[in-house]
From TrEMBL, chain A:
PROSITE patterns: ABC_TM1. Required for the activity of the bacterial periplasmic transport system of putrescine and spermidine. The chain crosses the membrane at residues 12-37, 66-91, 112-130, 136-156, 191-208, 243-262. This is Spermidine/putrescine transport system permease protein PotC. Pfam families: BPD_transp_1 (PF00528).
From TrEMBL, chain B:
Its EC number is 7.6.2.11. SMART domains: AAA (SM00382). This is Spermidine/putrescine import ATP-binding protein PotA. Residues 14-248 form the ABC transporter domain. The keyword Transmembrane does not apply. It is an enzyme of class 7 (translocase). Belongs to the ABC transporter superfamily. Spermidine/putrescine importer (TC 3.A.1.11.1) family. GO terms for molecular function: ABC-type putrescine transporter activity; ATP binding; ATP hydrolysis activity. The complex is composed of two ATP-binding proteins (PotA), two transmembrane proteins (PotB and PotC) and a solute-binding protein (PotD). Part of the ABC transporter complex PotABCD involved in spermidine/putrescine import. Responsible for energy coupling to the transport system. Keywords: ATP-binding, Cell membrane, Membrane, Nucleotide-binding, Translocase, Transport.
């Protein structure tokens, strides 16, 4: 008798479990998206298909304001995080391993491990002091906080890209009279570009999505889209929130899909 | 092949002086190069030959500037360049993996060095065209590097390294990734390019045949040392020590007593008691017993007579020649290679007694 290899796919109940898991994950989101197109005022009673709530959200100045702020923060935070992460990735991969390197990896990736609420409270305390000292209470705090937790997300794809890159190429550039800066500009950077773009987009999405740290750090009137939605839900909930969430979801899906395509791209 | 006196007059392009390269620290340090000195002459096709791990690539990388020596100096036309970064050295490298820039076209790859040197657009254009012509790649200048074959990539790597007109071209096992036929073609091509451009080539390989057919001179390396430097003829016919003799071609090792030694000539007594004249490797210390080598094609199997005698153990027919494996009376093996004349059988069968006639001047006394 041929002994069959153990395969998780063929175990009884596996397909069922997989289906249930996917349902649990995506059904609520599907419901949310469907009700965004609800014509009625209720988020639970279906009143026919309509783009009414998208229109309401689009014309809501508070939503516009929060969306605009979210974008500004995300653009700045993702940019700063990507630059920092690129430098960190170069510094940690373009060197022979030395004691303490692992510690540096851990240090760079720490924001992934520290509970967000801890960071949030810590930033709240520090920034409230700084606000008193400097009198400045603009978007800088949010941008700084977002940059900090975006760095590891930008770092990972860039480092992966650098590690898979042939070091001989940089050596060849140096051999052909390229100074270290020219070798970086003409060879390393162009080859690293997909990693940098992927890192930027990941950081961008992470920044857009953040609630906890933003909620703690923001000053009055500095709502981002997620904190605005959170505020709305505390009061009367209308399908407007569904509409915002749906638009948000669409944007994230587009960005993450693009991220995967860019990452898959060869050299 | 230039006569030694002529070659001696040529300028020295690259000189390594007492180079030590250690990797690691303290007692764990590994000496990749252990007091290596060598002088490579202008316009020479010079080969560093040795098994993997012998330090040949490390020496090449020290000349290129990818590594810095722990001790010693590297002189390029008399200037010490050991401390200069690679981009300040007028030498270029053809990498084993070719290392073509994947985001640039063939032409852009070839132009890279010239651009970095700040040459004018017109000069770059004509130089790139000339280089692509040299390597027979004129038609493929606009191709991406992933749209060309391995052999073509090899040519582009050569063109790219030659384009800036380096004083010395370093080639790190550039043919090892090619299949046999292409490798043979490129060996001839490389020789042609070297004579056309007049650039000094330093070629690294572990392939002894490649080294013998292409080089003006060869340095045989083992365990971080240079064992012998000489023309292919020197290296093959006058090996200095056991490693060189064994690494290059097939050979017979015999133990013999030194009867007389003077002026790089010696008379040695073989195990059979017969005395034959022999040449002596440079640096050999006079001693009573020594190892001598005789190449299989420098000896003949004979029915009667000869300086050695034994029993035929095996006869292997190779078409162009026949190998006769003989067990000598003292128990050591000896192989004779005989060219097959016409369709005649060599005349020996397994178990036959045979004498061995060693050609005049064929025996060489090794250093160690």
């Amino acid at each position: 008798m041929v002994r069959r290899r153990f395969e998780i796919r063929t175990q009884p109940g596996f397909a069922f479990l997989a289906l249930v898991t996917f349902f649990m994950l995506y059904l609520p989101i599907a419901v949310l998206v469907v009700y965004a197109f609800n014509a009625s005022d209720s988020i639970t009673i279906w009143g026919g298909l309509s783009l009414h709530w998208f229109r309401v959200a689009w014309n809501n100045s508070a939503v516009q304001d929060a969306a605009w702020r979210s974008l500004i923060i995300a653009v700045f935070a993702a940019t700063f995080a990507t630059i920092t992460a690129t430098m960190a990735a170069l510094a940690t991969t373009r060197t022979p391993p030395y004691p303490g390197l692992t510690f540096k990896y851990a240090f760079i990736n720490q924001p992934l491990m520290v509970p967000e609420i801890v960071t949030a409270v810590a930033l709240l305390i520090v920034f409230s002091r700084v606000k008193v000292w400097t009198g400045y209470s603009g978007l800088g705090y949010l941008i700084a906080a977002h940059t900090a937790f975006c760095i590891p997300f930008a770092y990972l794809p860039i480092r992966a890209r650098l590690e898979s890159m042939d070091l001989t190429l940089e050596r060849a550039a140096a051999d052909l009279y390229a100074t270290p800066w020219m070798a970086f500009k003409r060879i390393t950077l162009p080859l690293l570009r997909p990693g940098i773009i992927a890192g930027f987009m990941l950081a961008f999405v992470i920044s857009l999505d953040d609630v906890v740290i933003t909620e703690f750090v923001k000053s009055g009137g500095q709502d981002t889209l997620p904190t605005y939605m959170l505020g709305q839900i505390r009061r009367t909930v209308t399908p407007e929130v569904n509409a915002i969430a749906t638009a948000f979801l669409a944007l994230s899906v587009i960005l993450v899909t693009a991220f995967f395509f860019i990452n898959r791209q060869k050299n | 092949m230039p006569k030694p006196e002529e070659a001696e007059q040529k300028r020295v392009a690259v000189e390594a002086r007492s180079i030590v390269k250690a990797f690691g620290q303290g007692s764990n340090a590994i000496r990749a190069l252990d007091n290596v000195s060598v002088a490579i002459r202008e316009n020479e096709f010079f080969t560093l030959l040795g098994p993997s791990g012998c330090g040949k690539t490390t020496l090449l990388r020290l000349i290129a500037g990818f590594e810095y020596p722990t001790e010693g100096a590297i002189l390029l036309y008399g200037d010490d360049i050991a401390g200069l970064p690679p981009f300040k050295r007028p030498v270029n490298t053809v990498f084993q993996s070719y290392a073509l820039f994947p985001h640039l076209t063939v032409s852009e790859n070839v132009a890279f060095g010239l651009e970095m040197l700040g040459r004018s657009k017109d000069e770059i254009k004509s130089r790139v065209a000339a280089m692509l012509k040299l390597v027979h790649m004129e038609e493929l200048g606009n191709r991406r590097t992933d749209q060309i074959s391995g052999g073509q990539a090899q040519r582009v790597a050569l063109a790219r390294a030659l384009a800036p007109g380096p004083k010395v071209l370093l080639l790190d096992e550039p043919l090892s990734a090619l299949d046999y036929k292409l490798r043979k073609e490129m060996q001839i091509e490389l020789k042609r390019m070297q004579s056309e451009t007049g650039i000094t080539f330093i070629f690294v390989t572990h392939d002894q045949e490649e080294a013998l057919t292409m080089s003006d001179r060869i340095a045989v390396m083992s365990k971080g040392r240079i064992l012998q430097v000489g023309s292919p003829w020197d290296i093959y016919d006058k090996p200095a020590d056991r490693f060189v003799a064994d690494f290059i071609g097939e050979t017979n090792f015999l133990t013999a007593a030194v009867v007389d030694i003077a002026n790089s000539r010696a008379t040695v007594r073989l195990s059979s008691g017969k005395e034959i004249p022999a040449t002596v490797a440079e640096g050999m210390q006079p001693k009573h017993e020594a190892t001598i080598v005789v190449r299989p094609e420098h000896a003949r199997a004979v029915k009667k007579g000869g300086q050695l005698s034994g029993t035929v153990e095996n006869v292997v027919y190779f078409g162009t020649d026949t190998h006769i494996h003989i067990r000598l009376e003292d128990g050591s093996p000896f192989t004779v290679r005989q060219q097959n004349a016409r369709s005649e059988f060599c005349g020996f069968e397994i178990g036959d007694p045979a004498g061995i006639e060693i050609a005049a001047d064929a025996a060489q006394v090794l250093r160690d």
